[in-house]
Write a structure and sequence with these properties.
6 helices; mainly alpha
Amino acid sequence: MLQLFRYWLDLCLLRAAPQDGPASAFVLGFSLTCYAMVSVLVLSGSYGMMRGVQLAFIDLLVMAVFVLVMLYLSGKPARSLQTLSALSGAGTLLGLLALPLVLMTGPASTEASVPFALTLVWLLLSFWNLVVSAHIIRHALSTSLAIGVAMALLYVLISMQFAATIIPLDGNVTTGETGLSK
């Protein structure tokens, strides 16, 4: 396990590529499980446990479908295990770094202002997450970093849109109440 965490760290530091990791269903399952658990923790800090679980599930589903379709369309479906393992493993470590920031800011509904330094650290971590995803995608597709960045941005936009469409963040999910009706 320590070797796997070291590999995830090397991915986050751009010293490893997805093809450097094992093409193993067990590693993929472990990576996705870790990613899901950390995502639930991070998202629950801002949106509550129920929405956190829902948003984490949607993100995991969108990531898997996006990677499978992207690799299928590029003629490289055999790279799916390693690419999904790399994205979820690196996402696990970056999520663990984000967790203290989420805990410091509190729920998304709070109207208190967030300190500038905390916002800056959050933006830097988000930017680094995008760079790491682009790095992994670039290697998975055997293409340029620019294409990797474009695909990583597309993934983020699709994931955000699915989450916002399926689980409205304004109001009560169970009653369908929105922030406009208050």
